[in-house]
């Protein structure tokens, strides 16, 4: 059986006080077991709040009691050195960060993150035991030209196919059609399932059935509490990467509870 996972990408939102409030709300609810217990919840706040997320996301007296896992939104591909303003995988690991988003379309578009940079970042994270959440997905032009399958296949091959089969144990892939991110336009469950199945097939061709059958594939792109249940019910969709709808505890937790 595959892991079910819902990750919240806060992007560049929330002040310190607002972040603290949201972490508390999430932790309180998850602590009380109000959500489905077989779903792993990951919160990816801005990096300045990672330590607070780690502190508030687990039991003060017993750190093994984790209410939500902590993820970063970005990492530098180098381990250390003269890279002003950057944060490395060893630093994230030393703070208890377990996940990191890589290749988000906003980073590809605004910060020139290419497939080969994605490949280096993934490598660096895996060396530190951090699970990369690798984002792939086509633009509107690519979809209109019928190139969605080709695009995700290229991103997969160039970003991930240098890895060994065992590396896939830690990997999470998020299919995020660029035209659906922050636009309010969710992919239909059928559109999302079709690409997820394709991603799984491409992985199976390269790495075999066992690897393809166990890797969690998330959907992302204007997913909310209304659309999540049908999306999560699809055979190859194992959860979601949630942007806007992760900024409010009630909405986000409803999404966490959207599995059958
Ligand atoms: C995202 O940024 O990963 C995302 C899915 O955003 P939104 O849910 O706001 O479309």
Structure explained in plain terms:
An 8-stranded parallel barrel has the order 1-2-3-4-5-6-7-8, surrounded by 5 helices. 43% of the residues are buried. The protein has 11 helices and 8 strands. 40% of the residues lie in helices and 15% in strands. It binds phosphoenolpyruvate (PEP).
Features:
alpha/beta, 260 residues, binds phosphoenolpyruvate, 8-stranded parallel β-barrel, 40% helix
Bound molecules: phosphoenolpyruvate
Q: Gyration radius, to the nearest Å?
A: 17 Å
Helix content range: 40-55%
Give the averaged pLDDT, no decimals.
Answer: 96
Q: What fraction of the residues are assigned to beta strands by DSSP? A: 5-15%
Number of strands: 8
Shape: globular
State the helix count.
Answer: 11
Low-confidence stretches: none
Q: What is the topology, as strand order, of the major beta sheet?
A: 1-2-3-4-5-6-7-8
Order of helices and strands: EHEHEHEHHEHHEHHEHEH
**Span between termini:** 14 Å
């Amino acid at each position: 059986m595959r892991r079910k996972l819902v990750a919240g990408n806060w992007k560049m939102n929330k002040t310190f006080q607002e972040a603290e409030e949201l972490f508390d709300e999430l932790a309180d609810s998850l602590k009380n077991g109000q959500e489905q217990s077989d779903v792993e919840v990951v919160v990816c706040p801005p990096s300045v709040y990672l330590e607070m997320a780690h502190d508030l996301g687990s039991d003060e007296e017993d750190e093994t009691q984790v209410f939500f896992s902590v993820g970063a939104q970005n990492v530098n591909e180098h381990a250390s050195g003269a890279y002003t303003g950057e944060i490395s995988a060893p630093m994230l690991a030393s703070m208890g960060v377990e996940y990191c988003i890589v290749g988000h379309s906003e980073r590809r578009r605004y910060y020139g993150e290419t497939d080969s940079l994605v490949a280096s970042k993934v490598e660096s994270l895996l060396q530190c035991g951090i699970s990369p959440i690798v984002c792939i997905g086509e633009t509107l032009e690519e979809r209109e030209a019928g190139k969605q399958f080709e695009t995700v296949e290229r991103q997969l091959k160039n970003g991930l196919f240098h890895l060994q089969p065992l590396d896939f144990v830690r990997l999470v892939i998020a299919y995020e059609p660029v035209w659906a991110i922050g636009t309010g336009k969710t992919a239909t469950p059928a559109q999302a399932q079709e690409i997820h199945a394709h991603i799984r097939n491409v992985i199976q061709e390269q790495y075999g059935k066992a690897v393809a059958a166990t890797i969690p594939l998330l959907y992302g792109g204007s997913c909310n509490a209304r659309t999540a249940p049908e999306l999560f019910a699809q055979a190859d969709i194992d959860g979601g990467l949630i942007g806007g709808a992760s900024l409010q505890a009630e909405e986000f937790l409803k999404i966490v509870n959207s599995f059958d």
